[in-house]
Structure formats: structure tokens, C-alpha cells
Amino acid sequence: MHAAAPPVNVQSAVSAVNLVKVYGQGATSVRALDNVTVSLEAGQFTAIMGPSGSGKSTLMHCLAGLDSATSGDVLLGGTNLTELSDKQLTVLRRERVGFVFQSFNLMPTLTARQNILLPLDLAGTRPDRQWVDSLVEVLGLADRLAHRPAELSGGQQQRVAVARALVTRPDVVFADEPTGNLDSRTGAEVLDFLRRSVREFGQTVVMVTHDPVAASYADRVVLLADGRLAGEIQQPTPDTVLSAMRELGA
Amino acid sequence: MRRMMLASIRGHAARYVAGGLAVVLGVAFVTTALLVLNSTKAAMAEAVGAQYARADLVVASNQNDLTPDAVRRIQGMEGVAAASGVAVTGVEVHYPGSPGSVWVQVSGIPLDPDLRWQRVKDGRLPEKPDEVAVAASTAKDKNLRLGTRLTLTTGQSRVHDVRVVGIVRGGTLAQDITLVATDQATTAWGDGATYLEVLVRAADGADLAALRTRLSAAVGADITVQTANERVTELVAGLTGGVDVLGAFLLGFAGIALFVATLVVANTFTILLAQRTRELALLRCVGARRGQVFGSVLLESVVLGVAASALGVAAGAGLAALAVRLLEGQANGLMPSSLMPSTPTLVVPFVAGLTATVAAALAPARRATRVSPLAALRPEMAVTVRSRAGVVRVVLALVLVLGGGAILVAGTRTSAIMVGLAAGIGGGLVSFLGVLLGAPVLVPAAVRLIGLLSARVGGVPGRLAVSNAVRNPRRTAATAAALLVGVTLISLMTVGAASVQRTLHESLDRSYPLDLTVSAEGGERLADRTLAALRGVDGLAGTVPLRAGQVALVDDPSMRVQVHGVDPAAAAKLLRNPGPLGGLRDGLAIVGPVTAAQFGLEEGGSWRLRTSSGGELTVRVRMVRDEDTPSVIVSAGDLARLAPKAQIAVLWARIGEPADTKAVLERVQQVVGDLDNVSVGGAAPMRAMYDQILDVLLLIATGLLAVAVVIALVGVGNTLSLSVIERTREQALLRALGLTRGQLRGMLAFEALLIAAAAVVLGLLLGIGYGWSGTTVLLRTAAEGQVALDIPVSRLLLVAGVALVAGLAASVLPARRAVRVPPAAALGDE
Fold it and tell me: Which of A227, B58, B87, B289 could form a disulfide with A34 if both were Cys (CB 3.0 to 4.6 A apart)?
């Protein structure tokens, strides 16, 4: 991997520079991201917010190396993702990025334990037993490890997904509407755990959400509208987020 | 509803490609078989019928004893316009440039020009006794031209030189007629001036029925009088008996191909409907009746069936046209020269294909009607679909397998071959049906077992592949079942052929203890050079020479006998079974049946021979039945006393293992080829001939079954690509979590490999079982209970290897599709 030295803040875990993403061609093309430059700091819990169609999911996919940008650069811990091949991107995702999805996205044929260890198995590396045990302990999954996803509640499935995201100690954990399919109590548990992982383990977490309450768990909220950056809030509360969103017309 | 269905077919057209392709292949096979058979029969009828085109009635005698007198009597009868005898006789002909001579049939030209049917392509019909015309196919094969001279030898060993003056057009000569000569020449070359049949042309306005009655009364009891049409029908029926057997054989394989196609189509519908559960549930939500859902699915299958069958018939017609072109002129002009389609040959395959498709869709369509309208409201129903084999199915499968197996085993024990055959075929079919029924239990179990053994190789993608493969037992089972049919039948044929071969070899070994004997004829000796060359032939395990000398009898010194001497110890090493030859020692003479009769010898009697020193040697006689061994054999030591100057006249040899008998035989022939006083005998030439016949039969059967295997592999690819569509999300997730494209390809390849491997393992086991029991049933009586079973390991491994590699190949296209999906696209919650 030939990584160019990042021209931005060394503290940043992941950053976008003049990022443009266009879907489709000609008259029907949609500019999902329009020249976005943003830097997300390491050891912070950042929420990306915006109304539907604001490009927040696209931004996350590009930052996480799941999708390629039309132009601009994405820097993840000193690596320029736009210069990587599909295989290098895959390995980077495996080793340095964790994911939590709205619909849990667990492998239905694997047990909870196998799902948690999947990224390590794919990479062929041995798990750090202590780390895995403490994750399982903190997430309260100890007695559910032998169960398959179909035998777990929604909250349990999402906690398995969180454990899977953290098991590789990635540079960044990306969470895409992690509470979208959960009731408010279990949703709060998951958000609380994401925040604890930032405070206690120094984990960097980037979350996409449209829920002001969820966003209030973050250290910083980045607002997006029509594919452009539309402001940010430090140390947000549900109220400050709600009023900022209202100003965006959502 | 119909608009719905058509939109659905258009929307999912690509997903029907594989199922449709399976039907196209099966229907094409049936069409080709029917068309080629029909054309062959039509060509035969035309060739046979040509002879009677100008006759109204045919007087025929199986004894070939219609005399010229009888013909004259017929000519004189009222209502007869013309009558001529058709002479047929056999002669040996030597073609210039070909070795030896062959026995051919000559047909005479009717004396009455009005009844002549032969038409020449080149030259003219013979007019003089030393002129002949030849069939066009023979002229082509033997490179004969107008003016070529041929030497004929008649049954009375008289030799005639004749000249080719014409080439007869194909299709105007019946069956096996090669030469055409004048009536006079043909009758002269035969046993006497007699005819096989007399062609009769009725006078204009004559009453045929009355004429026939009068003719019957006139010619006598053993002679038949038929109309020309009756005669043709009878001859064609006699000729096409073989074609009918071939037809049943071909159609049997075509039926298997179509059956496999049905399995693939049924599986396609099951998967497609599972994927459309929500869609169907939505239809039910908005008010569609169960019957309407059922009808719409069935109508889809009709559209698919019509399209695929039509394509199949077209493809089959194309293939048949190609086959006819390749076969043209083969088998003495009996093969058709053009495609002769009839309505049934095109309609039957079409209807068969359509019926198979619709029948395949029935069960999935019924299941589709059971979808609850609520399913439309539940997300991701289709992904978690799991099916389990019912208890009833398992019990029924078990009953069929055990019952069929018991009948099969009973069949191998009975000595009544027809009963055994019926039990063998019946039991085999019933038990195989049981296996197919039990496949949803058997196949996943096999997949798990194979997965367990190979998990180390596959890593995580391998583990995932195993769990994916057993996720939907019915689907995996149906996919594997299609392949199972082909693999089972091919290994059945392979094992059966190998076992028949081994049984034949052992039976040959028992009757013929020697592989190869090279003998100098007429009391001559084998030249040292020939001996050295023979001993050096590659593939021979050992040789031993026999010396031959003339020995006088003590009782009547004027009588002499040729005696061979061989070293008993050396000879014993070459024998396939000890037999009488193995017991050879000093003081013993082994005597063949002819010599024994000539000298009035009996088993165990003494025979006094005169030694070279004038003394006397008494040997005990041991008889052999084998005509192939030299007439008298004694030990080498005894022969030295009887005839010290005896020269080497015979070489015995044993072919080494593993032997390519044919190749060794060819090398031996090369050594002795140009020596005209040396002959090659023993069991090897016979063994090579049997081997060749078996190899050809096996090759044909395998080739025909390969169609079924190809269809099954289309099914494997189909199941896999539909699974890929179904699991797009999962695969995107794995890609997001760090599964490389290569690993994803590997995972799908492994899944295909597991399904193929399960089919291969089960198919090999079944094939070996069926092959053995089949061979036992067939050969038990003929081989006097000494059936030798064999597992041709390398051939079976080849079958397994091909099936596995093909299974791998079947995963290529689905994998291409899977890796193209960008991970982000499939993860969105929209």
C-alpha cells in the first residue's frame, strides 16, 4: 500500500477531501455527494445527520471503502482509499473497519460466536481471547453464543453485530442507523455501548442516523443536506440537534 | 391474471433460461433419435421396395427352388402380362488392391426388360456372362471403376474373371446385394438354375385376387404368393427388427435425459416460487383465489414448455440432419441419404417436452397456493425458507430402497434368466426411486460428511459453503438428484462392462489356457530371426518354445505322427489355468481330439513310439478337447529321445499384466505379418475382439448418458445462480466484512463442488451395486455361476473427476454475477 501523507489533521481517523459521488449518467444523473470535505477525529463518537436523500449513507459507504467515489480522496488512518484495488480495499475493510447495520446483517447459518469471529476467520488470524471475552461480557451475550441469529431477539442480534464490529479493534466503526429496527429501550442500550467503547477503549465510531435522540449520544454531529456539508454541532443534545435539523427543512 | 403471468415471465425470463435449456436439450435428444430412426426405416423401405416397383404379385420360395420351368408355366397363365425369376447367389470376390476375398451376394437381372428395376448411375447393366455391375457404396469403398476386373470364386470353386460395366444407383438394390449380373451368369454361378422369387406383372384389367388364387394353386404348398406391397412390408419388418432394438435403446437414453430435465425444471420452479413468496402473498392479499395462483404458475410452465420444446425440436432436427449426413452411405447404402420427417417424429418430442415441463411445475405450483396472504407483510420471508424432509417421505423412501434392494438381490440368486432380469430391472428401479425420494435426507448428510473431510482445505469460505449447501435440503437434494441419475447410470455401465469383461476373460482363461500361440504351418520351423523378434515384443510376460519332430509308431513303423515337445516347468508358468497341459511330465502325451480319433487312442491308454536310437518309449495318453493346442505334446526330454533333431515350430506366450491385449496382438502381427506360413492363435485374439466390442458399447452408452449429465450440470449452475440472487445481501455483508472476490468465488465453487461430490459419491456407490447385481443377473446362467465382479477404479475416478470439474465449471457464471455486486449496493435498507 502506498499511502500519501495526509494533508489534514493527524488526529483525524478518517477524512474526505473534495469528495464527489455521481450516480447514473447524463440527464438522469444524481449528484449524491457534492464536493464534501470533512475530517472525523480519532477517539470520537461522530454522528452524520441529514434528511432523506442528503447523501449521508453514500458518504459513509465511501468513507468505509464500500463504494468508490467519482472524484476526490478518502483518507483512512493515513491510507488513501481511492488508490486501492478491490482486493486491497477488502483487506482494509477486514482489518481496519467495523460495521453495524440497521438490519443487523448477521449470517443466518452461523452461530452468534461464529458471527462475532467471522472477520478474524476471514482474515485467518487468531482471536485475542481476552478481548473477545470482555466484549461478550460487556454486551451480555455470554449465554447466547451458541444460538443462531433466528433464535436471538433484535437487541441481541444488534449486540452481536456490535461485537463483530469491535472484535478486530478497527480504526473506525461505521454504524448505519444502528437503532432503526430496535425499540427505544434496546436502542438506548446499543447506543450506550457504542459511547462506552469510545470512552473506555478509545474506539472511533461514525454513526449515520436521522434520529436526534440517537445523535445526542455522539460527541459531534455533522449535518449534511443535498450532498453538501450543512454545519455541525459539538456536544449535541436532542434539542440542539432537532432545531438544527428543522433549519435544514427536514 | 394472464397479464400478470406474462409480465412475470418477462420480468424473470433470465431465471428460466437454465430450466428451459434443460428441456431444450432433452427434447432435442428425443427428436434426433426419432428422426434418425424414421429416416433409416424409410430408407430401408425404399431400398427394399425398389425391386418390386414394377411387379403386382411376387411368388417366393424360401428354398430358392423355383425352376425356369415354373417361371414359364406362370408366364403362360391367363392374366399374366410378364413374369421373370430373380436369381440370387453367393460368390467369393477378390477386389484388386484388397487382401483376401469376401463372400458377397449377386442378384440376377430379370430376363423380361419390363420387370428390371436396377438403375445405373454410371455405365450400363451387364449383358454378357463376364460382365457385372456393382453397388455404388461398394464401388466407393473398394475404389472400383468401370472396366475394373474382378476375380469371382463360385460355390463349386470355379473361378471366373469378370469386368465391371456399371455402377448401380444406391436405393435400387435390396439389403445385402453387392453385385448385379445377367440372369444366365447368376444362375450358372449358383447351385443350379433356380430362383428365389418370381416377379409377376398382371395384364391390364386382370383381377389380381383371382390371379393370386390361381397362382397359389399352380405353384404348390411351400411357396407363397403375395402382392408386391405385402412382400415389401414383410421384408422391411424382418430388416428393421434391429432398428427397433436400436430405437428402444436410443429412446431409453433420451427418456433418461428428459427425466433429468424434469428434475431440473421442477427445481427451478420451486426456487423461483420461493423467491416470489411475497409477490404471490400480495396477490392473495389483493384477492386472488388459490386456483388463480395455481393457474398462473401452471400457465407460466406451459409458456416455458412450448418455447423450450419448440426450440428443442428445431435443434433436434438440425442434429438429425447432421447425423444423416455423417451416416450417409454407411452400412451398404442402408442408411438414409436424406432426412425423412413425419408428423409423429416432430409432434411426439414436442408433446413429451411440454408434458415434462408442466408435470415438473405441478408440485411447486401446488405449494405456491399454500402461501398465506400474511407472508406479504412479513419482511424477508424468502431468505429464511427452510424445508425439512417429512417423516412419511423418509419411511416411504426406506421401504422402497429396502424392498427394491431385496427384489434385486433375489434376482441375482435365481437361475431363471427372464425372472432374474425382471427382478433386476424392477428392483433396481424401485430402489433408485427410493433413493431419489430419500435424497433430501441422504444428500445433505453426504454433503456434511464430505464437508467435514474437506473443511480444512476450504477455510472459512469452505465452512460457509457447507452450511449454505445444506441450508435448503430439498433444493440441494433435487439439484444433486439430477446429477445422481447420470453418474449412477454411467458408473453402472462402467462397472457392468468391466465385470462382464473380467467374467469373459476368466471364462476364456478356463477354456483356453494359452494367451498366444505362434505356429509355423506344414511342418516348417520358426526362423531364428522371427523367434528373436517375437521374444522381444513389448508386453509379453514370458514365452516358451515348442520343438516339433516326426515320430514313427512302434506298432506300424510306416505311420508317422508330428509330436511337439515343451519343457513342462516353463510351460506351466505361461498357463492361465493348469488344466491337462499343466500336468505334463515325462512319460505322458497330451493328445488332441483329431489325432486321438486317427490313431484310436483313449484317455489313460498307452501309446508306443519309436525313439531315434531304435528303442521304444511308451507314453500314457491324456486327452484335451481344445482344438488350438498342437495335436500331440510330450515333455521336451521325451521329444529329445524320440526326435533329437526336432526344430522349434511353435512359440507359446503369455501377455503381461496390465495388458493392452490389442496393442500386444498388433505388435505380434507386425512381426509375423509378412510370413505366410505362420499363424497366430490362442485366447488373445478373442479377448481383444470382446474387449473392443465392450469398449465400443460402453463408449456409446456413456456418450448418450453424457447428455443427461450436461442437463444436470445446467441444473447445478441454475440452483447456484438462483441462490446467489437470494443471498445477495449475505454476500454483500461478507464482502463488507472482508471476504475478497476470490474468496467469494471460492465459496460458490466449493458449494457447487459439494453438491456434485455428494451426487458423485452416492452415484458411484449405487452404480457399483447396480452394476454388480446387473452383471450377476445377466451372466449367472451363461458363466455357470462363475461371475467375476470388478471395480474399474481408474475409469470410475475419471467419471468422478469429470463430474466434479464440470460441477466447478457450473459455478463460474453464478460466481461472476455474485462478485459484480458492489457491497454497498446490497446493504442499503431501502
Answer: A227
